[in-house]
From TrEMBL:
HTH rpiR-type domain segment(s): 1-77
Keywords: DNA-binding, Transcription, Transcription regulation
InterPro entries: Homeodomain-like_sf, HTH_RpiR, RpiR-like, RpiR-like_SIS, SIS_dom, SIS_dom_sf, WH-like_DNA-bd_sf
Organism from which the protein derives: Lysinibacillus composti
Protein name: MurR/RpiR family transcriptional regulator
Length: 286
């Protein structure tokens, strides 16, 4: 196990200040190896003593040993990347489909191991009971958020995607209350704007759950439930498969709360769409 993996394993047992150090170590290993404990503390916005206490919490003798551990991690990653590239070059083109799809299957299986059954059941019930569902996802996460929005709109009323526009954000937040649900999609490094929205929603007693690519994502401070898919080292293309599988499962969990209700909504929706298309066809022929 790498040192960074060990940090993730112990993350929940660290103090709030030490968690900030842990997050910084995971996200910026190169800076840790080239800066002093005092400089790292200033970059994070905490005291040097908190950085040192983090080292002790990780059973290290001090900051120097932390740097040595990180350097060892980085060296191991470089060796792993070289080996991985060598393997990729040897894969024959005719085996590319099975290679990619098997990797997706492995990612989904890995995601399953990190899903908490109690949290999954709770999130499914929230999706069913919420009067309004708001979907938040910016930058590379926006397409995934859009797909989730359109899927849920086909199953229930009052589903809205928050756009990255100040006026729209203000309007949506003002409409939220304790009967609302905010789903945060953060499959890449989360923007400060998204954190602010989640914080404001949490302050309004809105139920919040998030799907991220890192168990150490700062969104965890504002989300009661956190699901992790993929990892920060994976591209968004690799992460999206696990995300889609998880959301499919959550939606099935939501439908299971009252299958007849969702089937009726879909049927009514289909009739409206069919009638709309018929009217459009008639107009085009006139």
């Amino acid at each position: 196990m790498s040192f960074c993996d060990e940090v993730k394993k112990r993350f929940i047992r660290l103090s709030r200040g030490q968690r900030k150090v842990a997050q910084f170590v995971i996200d910026n290993p190169n800076l840790v190896t080239t800066h002093t404990a005092s400089e790292v503390g200033k970059l994070i916005g905490i005291s040097e003593s908190t950085v040192i206490r983090f080292c002790y919490a990780m059973d290290l003798t001090g900051y120097v040993e932390l740097q040595e551990k990180i350097k060892s991690d980085i060296a191991g990653e470089v060796r792993g990347e070289v080996k991985s590239n060598q393997v990729l070059f040897t894969v024959k083109h005719e085996h590319l489909v099975s290679e990619v799809m098997n990797r997706d299957v492995a990612n989904i299986l890995d995601t399953i191991q990190h899903i908490n059954d109690v949290q999954f059941e709770k999130a499914s019930k929230w999706m069913h009971k919420a009067e309004d569902i708001y979907i938040l996802g910016f930058r590379q996460s926006a397409p995934a958020a859009s797909f989730l929005t359109s899927t849920l709109k086909n199953l229930r009323k009052h589903v809205k995607q928050i756009q990255h526009d100040v006026d729209h954000i203000v309007q949506q937040i003002s409409n939220m209350d304790d009967k609302s649900l905010l789903i945060v999609v953060a499959l890449d490094s989360i923007l400060e704007d998204a954190l602010t929205i989640a914080k404001l929603a949490s302050n309004k007693k809105v139920k919040v759950f998030a799907i991220t690519n890192s168990a150490l994502s700062p969104i965890r401070d504002y989300a009661e439930i956190l699901f992790t898919v993929g990892s920060q080292k994976q591209s968004s293309n690799e992460t999206i498969t696990s995300y889609s599988a998880l959301m499919h499962a959550l939606i099935e969990g939501m439908i299971a709360q009252n299958k007849r209700q969702y089937l009726s909504f879909q049927e009514a929706n289909s009739k409206i769409e069919s009638n709309f298309l018929f009217q459009e066809t008639v107009r085009s022929l006139q």
